[in-house]
Design goal:
five-stranded mixed sheet, globular, Glutaredoxin
Length: about 230
Amino acid sequence: MRGSVKPLSVHICIATERHDWPHTIEDEEGSLAQAIGKAGLAMLSELQKIDRVVLSNVSLPLPNRTNAYTGYEVYILYNAWCKLENVQKEDAEHVLLQYALSKPVKPASYTATPMGFRAVVLVCSHMRRDARCGKTAPILLEALEEGLRERDMFYDKDEGSEDGKVLVTTVSHIGGHRYAGNVLVYRKTDTGTVETLWLGRIMPNDIPWVIEYTVLQGRVKRSAVRGGVQW
């Protein structure tokens, strides 16, 4: 299991308010994932020169749509630590140029805001890719929320600030379903860098040490680690 995660250049997460998605998220007609996928194909020769671009859907709530706010919310968890608001499908190329290729671009139509979270935890729940992740995710989510609430660290949008809190959400296919439950931990270190720790075969009784050691200290059990990187 160790070494089963390939290096990445960027992890782009799109809020969809759902816990399951089509087998391939880029195939969903009219979605932002489809738009980013098409933009990626158009610049494939450039993207092939860098480590992989990871594009995911997550179950975070959709924004309240208004005449002025018609887009999506997108979370860049690697190689930035920010939230993009009001992203339009027409912005797909801009997002890849800015965050995957780090190329100079014109000012964006969307707003980018640094996140205050102490950590972000993603749990794969993509049932249509593999039932193992779909079945384990709800149990792990419940255990994570319970453990983080005991420490007053669980982020609830209705309860206040992001600062020092841990955001927990489900995520679409991230590879390695045979390692379900798949858990990704992105955490801010004391020096301001961000660690990415990919865990596999996590069970509910593992969640206390995942919170205590991985989320809070950046430590892992050798038997559960798939890979990781710091930037």
